[in-house]
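Hi Y.,

Following your request, here is the sequence exactly as I used it, all 432 residues.
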Amino acid sequence: MNVLSIGGSDPSSGAGIQSDVRTFTSLGVHGLTVVTAITSQNTVKFSKTEQVSSSMIKDQLNAVFSDFTVDAIKIGMVYKSSVIKAIYSELKNVKVPIILDPVIRSTTNGSLIEKNALNAYKKLLLPLAFVITPNVSEAEKFTGFKILTKNDALKCALKIRELGAKNVVITGNQFEKGRVDDFVLENTTHYSISGKKLQIVNHGSGCNYSASLAVALATGKSLQEAVKFAKNYAHNSIKNSKKIGKGIPITNFKKSEIEKSLSDSILDFKNLKNIYSLIPECQTNFAYSKPHPKSIRDILGISGRIVRAGKSVNVAGNLEYGASRHVASAILAVTKKFPLIRSALNLKYDSKIIKKFRDGGLTVLSYDRTKEPSHIKRKENASVLWGIKNSIKNTIKPPDIIFHRGNFGKEPMIIVFGESPTDVIKKIASIL
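Below is the corresponding structure, written out as C-alpha cells. Let me know if you'd prefer a different format.
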C-alpha cells in the first residue's frame, strides 16, 4: 500500500514530508513524497522558505504516478499560487482519497502559505478534497468565523464545504474543560470525536493526524473510523513527544510492547520462504492478546488481513484492538484454560502440513465442523468458540495447532497458537 505526501521539507523531521514518512512507516505503508518547498527551520525557530518550481513539482508527480499505485494523497504545505495550480493540474482527475491539511503557520511561527495564495487554495484544492483537516485557527482563517461552540464549528464547517470539500474535520476544539474535540461534518451529518487534552507543546501533531488519517482511509475505513484512528494516533504521538533539539519537543509515535512484538512478527512472517502458499482463501490474520483478555477488544489484530497477491504477501490494514474476530475468538477460547497462550495465526489447511507439525513434536488438536449444532451456526462468531472449546476440553497440554477440515461453505483451516507472536513464527518456520 502506497500513500503520497505532497508538502514542504522540514529539516528537523518534526513536521512536513519527513514527519509524514515517519508516520507512514510506523503504520506499515510505503510513503511516497513530492516536495513543494524547502524550509529552514528547527525546534527553536523558522528562518526561510524556498519554493520548488512548478515544473519540478509536476515532474515529481508524474514520476510517482507513472511508477506506483497510489492509495491516498495528503497535501500539506503549498506556499504559492503557482504551486497550487501545478498540483491541481496533475490531480484534478485522480480518484483516490485526497486529504487536505491546510497548514498556514508552523508551530515556531513561520508562514507556510502566502496570503495571496489562499484564494487559489480555496478555488482549486478544496474541490479536490475528500476531507480537509484545519485546526480551529485555520478554520477561522478560511471563513472569518470565530469558533467558541459546537454550533460555531458547524457553521464554519458548512462554509468550508460550500467551497468544495466533501467532508470537513476541524481539530483542536475545546468545548469542554480538559477535553479536545474533533468536529466532523460528514455528508449531511455532524458529530464530535472527543479526547483528553494533553498539556504538551509539540511540533508535528497536525501532520501526524492528517498522515494517519490518510493511511486509515487508504485501508478502506469509513471516515468516522478513520477520524477515531487518527485522533488516537495523534494523541499517542503527542503523549510520547521527545525533546530532541533545543526547542519544543517533536511528536513521537510509540508502540506498546504488544504492538511492537506483533508488528515485528508480521514482518518475520512475510519474510518466511514461500509463505504465500500457506495463505488461505479467506486470507490470514495474526493476533496478540493482553494478559487475561475479557473480549476481542483486548486482542490486537490486523484491521484488514495478511493477503496473498501472486507470490507476494502484503498487509492490508493496521494493527487495532478488536480488529480480528475469528483468530481473536480462538485465542479467547484457549487462553481461558491456558492463560500463557496469547497469540495465534491462521493458515491454509493441508494434511501434509499437519503431518509436519505432528512429526515436529507439536501438540495438534482438531474439531469436526460437520457436528456443529444448528443454533451455534446461527449465532455470529460462535462457531470458532464452539470448535476450539471442544478441541481442548480433554487435553492438559496447551495446543500448538488446532485444525478443522471445513464443512459446506466453510473453508478448512489451521490455527497456530503460541505464548507470543515470536513463538507462533518459530512453530511455522519449523515446518518450512
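The radius of gyration is 24 Å.

Thanks again,
Q.
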